[in-house]
Amino acid sequence: MNEASADENVTEIHREERDAANPVSQEEEADNPPPAPTPTWARRRRRAQNQWRGNCLFRLLIVLLFILLLVIILADMTHSQDPNSGDGARAKITHIASLGSSYAAGPGISPQRNQAAGRSGNNYAALLQRRLNALASNNGNNNNNVALADLSVSGATLLNLISEPQDTGLDVFAPQVKGVPDAADLVLVLGGGNDIDYIGGLMRDAMELPADLFEGMSMMSGQLNSADALARRYGRVLDAVHAAAPRAVVLAVEYLTLLGSDFVAGKHAPFDEGRARYHRQRAEMLNNGTRAARAGREDWCHVVQVSDNTMEHGIGAKEPWVTDYLGVSDVTHVPYHPNAAGMKGVEAIIYKKLVELELVDDDDGEL
User: Fold this and answer.
1) Residue 252 contacts residue 242 (beta carbons within 8 Å)
2) Which residue positions does the secretion signal occupy (predicted)?
3) Which stretches does DSSP call E strand in the chain?
4) Alpha-carbon distances of 45 from 54, 55, 130, 343, rounded to whole Å
5) What is the DSSP letter of 35?
6) pLDDT at 16 (0 to 100)
């Protein structure tokens, strides 16, 4: 026997010994054949697919990160360019126009910026402008100053606001609406008291002149005698303002209360309760006419209800916001008009209205 045959015999013997130790039937061998080797091309394709999926996920992650970074950058740019951005209160007003009579102008309140108009540098429009500028400054927007076109003139009627020039004896003023800039985004309007002879009647009583001496003159000069008539005239003013500054929010500002809850006729003014009742009726007519004028203009016009909020600050109050009848001969004390505290109070009420209308983001003060 040669060596090859011997090796084959040994191999066969080993195979028989292994089969004896691990017997497997022919059926089992048929059911569980040994796995076939994976072809090389299949392995390559699977590897390429896995690589492609990984590349896609990586690219998607990069795109998402880029979008997120772009959003952050754009938000930061918008915030830095927004003149109203910053912490605390922020105003969305850039240009104010103020129209009205003496209750808007502020005669007798120092400093007088325009003597012919009886216009104070501390009237409510000027105070509001300074507050809004302070808000901008506090939030780092020093280049975003709020502009003010103060057109108010003491003694003005609603007609002087829209169509008739006003001669004060020291100067002639064009109808105030002509000075409203079309860029204004807030217009303050106050008027009507001179149209119904409200303040004039009070001042004549302060001078203890007979009321009937002027009643005929009042009727002849076109004075109004009802809230409806006043509302119609006031509505014309509001429409003219809206036409001049169509993007502006218009605020119709009421007059301060004069004869409030603390007033006592004969004690706080030289007239009796009958005349006090008459003047209160005129004040009610004024307020009703002002509020009614807003009808049909609600989208862009709002009423600032000063009267209801100043009942505790009338003549005779512990902290009056108006002057009494004393000092008729003193030009620094104009009877039955707002004092410096009153102008501050009205400005605070207007500011709260701006907060309510979301023209200022939050409130930083109390009335």
Assistant:
1) no
2) none
3) 95-100, 112-114, 119-120, 147-150, 166-167, 172-173, 186-190, 249-253, 301-304
4) 14, 15, 75, 84
5) P
6) 56
Contact indicator for 360, 91 with CB cutoff of 8 Å: yes
Mapped onto helix, strand or coil, the DSSP state of residue 122 is coil
Per-residue pLDDT, 287:
97
Cis geometry, peptide bond prior to residue 270 (ω within 30 degrees of 0)? no
What single-letter amino acid sits at 169? G
Q: Which DSSP string do the residues of 225-245 spell out, in sequence order?
A: -SHHHHHHHHHHHHHHHHHHS
Nearest Cα to Cα of residue 99 among 224, 218, 242: 242
Minimum mean pLDDT range among 69-73, 278-282, 283-287:
69-73
Tell me the residue type at 189. V
C-alpha pair distances (Å), 80 with each of 67, 85, 287 = 20, 7, 43
Tokens coding 232: 């119609």
Specify the pTM.
0.73
The single residue listed with the structure tokens 């105030």 is 176
Residue 165: is its pLDDT beyond 50? Answer: yes
pLDDT digits 0-9 by tens, 44-95: 767 766 676 667 677 777 777 778 777 666 655 554 444 444 344 455 899 9
Find how far residue 306's CA is from the centre of its chain: 18
How far apart, in whole angstroms, are the C-alpha atoms of residue 98 and residue 360? 18
Beta carbons of 234 and 293 less than 8 angstroms apart: yes
Q: 145-177 as b/e, with b when 16 or more CB fall inside 10 Å?
A: ebebbbbbbbbbbbbbbbeeebebeeeebebbb
Q: Determine the Cα–Cα distance for residues 349 and 213; give it in Å rounded to an integer.
A: 37
Angle between helices 124-138 and 340-356 (to 10 degrees): 50
Concatenating the DSSP letter of every residue in 315-355 gives TTSSS-SB--S--TT-TTS-TTSB-HHHHHHHHHHHHHHHH
- Cα–Cα distance between 124 and 342 in angstroms, integer? 9
